[in-house]
Each structure stands twice: as C-alpha cells, then as structure tokens.
Amino acid sequence: MKLATTAQMRQLDRRTMDELGIPGEALMERAGEGVVRAVRRLTELSGGCHPAIHLAAGKGNNGGDAFAAARLLKELGYSVTVWLAGATVDVKGDALTHLNRMKAAGIELRELPSVKDWDRVCTGRPCGEIVVDGLLGTGTDGPAQGAAAAAIRCVNAWSHDALVVSIDIPSGLNADTGQAEGEAVRADVTVTMGLPKRGFVEPSALEYVGSLEVVDIGIPQEFVDHLLMEGEKELIALADLRPLMPRRARLSHKGTFGHVLLIGGSRGYSGSIALSARAALRSGAGLVTVLVPASIAPIVAGFMPEVMVTGVAETAQGTLGYELWNTWQERLDEFDAVLLGPGLTRHDQSLQLVRSIIRDCPRPLVLDADAISILEGQAHWMGKARNPLAITPHPGELARLMSTTVEKIQADRCGAVRAAVKATGATVVLKGAGTVIGQADQPLQVNINGNPGMATGGTGDVLAGMLTGLLGQGFDAFDAACTSVYLHGRAGDRAALRKSQAGLIAGDLIEEIPSAFRELEGR
C-alpha cells in the first residue's frame, strides 16, 4: 500500500469531500467506525466482552474521531468515558458535531484543560482495559504542549494496565518523519485513516505505532493513484493481500494445493524443522514431506502425524549427509517448492548440500537459518539458482552472508535489503521489528504488525514454513513473501492477545495462522 505525507492526505480528504460531496462529519463517522472495529477485535481476542473504554480526546479533528468512536462504542454496550484535553468551548467544526452527538448519547465527558488537571487524574489510574488516544492528529506541528503533552504522559502511564489504541497516528509522533519531537504515545495498535503515513515505516516510529490497521474512509483509488506515484517503500496491508487468495474449488484434492519438501534438522535440533512443517501445513499446503537425519526422524514424526517424515543418511555428528542429494535430486519433480535450512547446522557436508541444492533445484526454493549462515561471504552462490529463490535471514545471518556487521545492517535495514537483492538475485526477507522485503524491480515492502512476544525461538522457522507453503500453492515469490510476513505478524498479534507477549511461544503462533488467514478470505 502506498505511503502518504500529511499534505497529501489533506489533498485526498479535500478532493473526496469536494468532488464526491461527502461531508467531513461523514468521514469522521467512518473513522470512528474503524476505531470501534479495532477495539472490538482487541477485546474479543484478549478475552473481554464489554470492558471499560477510556478515550483521551483533543480539541481538533482527531478528537472528533474519538467522539464518534465513543458514541458507537456506547451503542454496542461498552462502558465509555471521554477525557478532553481542553474545554468544550474550544471544539469547532465537524468535531463539535460529533461532540454534541456524543453528549446526546449520555456519555460521560471530563474536561481537563490544564496540565495540573491531567497530573491529578494520572496519579489514580482509571479502571479501564483499553485506552483510545485521540489527542493529536497529523495537523499538529512541533512537540506537544500544555494539556496535550500532560495527557500523552497520562496515556502512557495508563498503558501499564491497559492496551492503547491510537487514532490515525500516535499523538506526538511526526507523521512524515516518524520522529517523536517531544512527548509521544506508545500505542499497541494504531488505526490510521485512508492510507498509512510515510513516517510509520521509519525505524524511529516502530516503538510508537505498534501494529497498524488501515481504515478505508471512502477515498477512491483513482484519487490515490493520481496523486501518489509508486515509491521506493510501501507498507504491506490487509487490503492489498485479499485479492491474492483465490476461492478454493469444490473439486479440489490434496494435490491441488501443492506438495512441499522441507530439508533440515540435526541431532539436538529437531524442533526447527518440525515447526516449519507445521506452519507449511497451516498455510494451506496440501502435502508436506520432511527430510531429516535418520536418528531424529521418529522425534519429528511424533510432532505431526499429518506430515510425511523420511530419515536419511547422516554424518557422525548427526547432521544431514551430502549423499542424500544423489537420491532426492531426481525426485524433485514430485514437489512444488523446497525449504532448506532449519536446524541444518554448519557442518562441511551441509555446505556442499546447500551449494548443490541452490545450483540444481528445479523448483522455487527458500533458504533459512543455517542454509544462509553457511554461505558466509558467499552471497554470489545464490545467483546460481535456476528458479525463484527466497531467503529469510535475521540481521545476524544477513550480516554473515554480506560480510558486514549487525550494527550496519540495523542502521540501514532498507539499504541492506537492496544490497542483498543485488548480490543474490533473490527475494530477500529481512526479519525483525519492521520486516523488510525486497525483490528486483519491486518497491521495498515493510511490515509493522507483530509484537515483542515474537522474539522467541522458533518464530523464524514458522515464517519459513509459511512462505514455503504459499510457494507450493503457486504464489509468486514476492507475493508469497509479503503474504506470509503479514500473516505471520498477524498471527503473532493474535497469540499475544490471548496468551500475553511474555508467554508467547512459536507453537501458539502456528495455532493462530488459520484465524489470520480467515481475515483474508471468508472460508
């Protein structure tokens, strides 16, 4: 999805109102509806029903969105309180229209026009499970001041006990640069209107934006295409992925959805390949075959009765022996995609195996984990691939591959992906907060859903399995990368809401993959 500046969003809003005759208060209503959908999703996933919702509102249009959301939440049976950083006499225009509607609905409004007012309420945290931040929008220049700054501090204090949803942009964040110029809200979810803002994909914004929901408020796509050219970076969004998911035919069988081959594992490292296999199945692959060292085949098979596990010759250290390729190379026509790497280790024979598979594999290939690390300083080997190649490194693996440091990779993640694409010819997925996807002749794609709970062993193996499962179903490598990365983050967010970030493990994420897919398709 294209990224917009603050000025461009103003132009799009104005054109929508002027040429389509949609009044500003109607756009504000749609924005409120989008906030309500996000709040309902959070409450349902976290086990709530109709919890107390506190909305911190400013005097401008961002506050107007909060007033609309408050009224709609009240209509659904939620307990709602609105805290205004100012006085009602200062609210004007469309925001005033929605403030009056909110008052008519009988919603409690607390006016807090001064810093002292906010400091006072902040010491006694309200009993609410979700706090909605509608204090400042994209029209604010410079750092937050006065009551608005105090309100931001208060929202951040309340966030110790509640989830925070920001409307359009976390208050205090610069929408164009992604910089916090003073006090800024740290949101769990940002519900942005129309289009994602350019600053959201900057590394500096990740601590504030949280996961992102983009709300369609009725801006026609032709208006967007006329104003915005294709940029160097875009955001992966749910709306862009939906068309990629075809309806399954009634006469389908397991062969219809691809047969994928996963190669990896070693003595002591059976879990990685097992997680990848489960994730490939959960991503819709019809059949999954796994090749592992013979000594761990019973362990891997015990994880998943649905997967076909084959034990093959191994080295004295319990790693895969190179000779397996002599047998399996001739069978690759049976498969639709191949994954190599999880749990592989960096044995000498593993290096021979990785090089041979890159050179000889006639099917789309995914390299993950040790299959990347073992090519330290040998990125050029990936250019020998005969078919689409995707790699899924974390910063350390990419640093080894490109003979650089993690610090340099993290200092310019987008630049690092561009360099890796050029060096390897592959579709490159640089994992981490703000995952970046690159492919030649495509704008970089950035994903900002997911959460810190996913920083746990095995989640990268899950992503590799998802990507391979989609490739096996016929997805283009770039589309498969974007779709798997987004759904991986979405599943992680769902798992964290159900289990907590601290308690999340990779297996929890796999169990949420079907529900994440359900958000893309109706079946």
SS-based structural class? alpha/beta
Total beta-strand segments: 17
Mean pLDDT: 95
Give start-end ranges of low-pLDDT stretches.
none
Account of the 3D structure:
The chain is an alpha/beta fold and 523 residues long. The protein has 2 domains: 6-229, Rossmann fold; 256-518, Ribokinase (UDP-N-acetylmuramoyl-L-alanine:D-glutamate ligase), CATH 3.40.1190.20. Helices cover 41% and strands 15% of the residues. The chain has helices spanning 6-20, 24-45, 61-75, 93-104, 115-123, 146-158, 206-209, 221-227, 238-241, 271-282, 297-303, 324-328, 348-360, 370-373, 395-401, 406-411, 413-424, 459-472, 477-499, 506-518; strands at 52-57, 79-84, 108-111, 130-134, 163-167, 189-193, 211-215, 233-235, 259-263, 287-293, 308-312, 337-340, 365-367, 389-391, 427-430, 435-438, 444-447. The model has no long low-confidence stretch (mean pLDDT 95).
Helix-strand layout with pairing:
Blueprint: H1 6-20, H2 24-45, E1 52-57, H3 61-75, E2 79-84, H4 93-104, E3 108-111, H5 115-123, E4 130-134, H6 146-158, E5 163-167, E6 189-193, H7 206-209, E7 211-215, H8 221-227, E8 233-235, H9 238-241, E9 259-263, H10 271-282, E10 287-293, H11 297-303, E11 308-312, H12 324-328, E12 337-340, H13 348-360, E13 365-367, H14 370-373, E14 389-391, H15 395-401, H16 406-411, H17 413-424, E15 427-430, E16 435-438, E17 444-447, H18 459-472, H19 477-499, H20 506-518
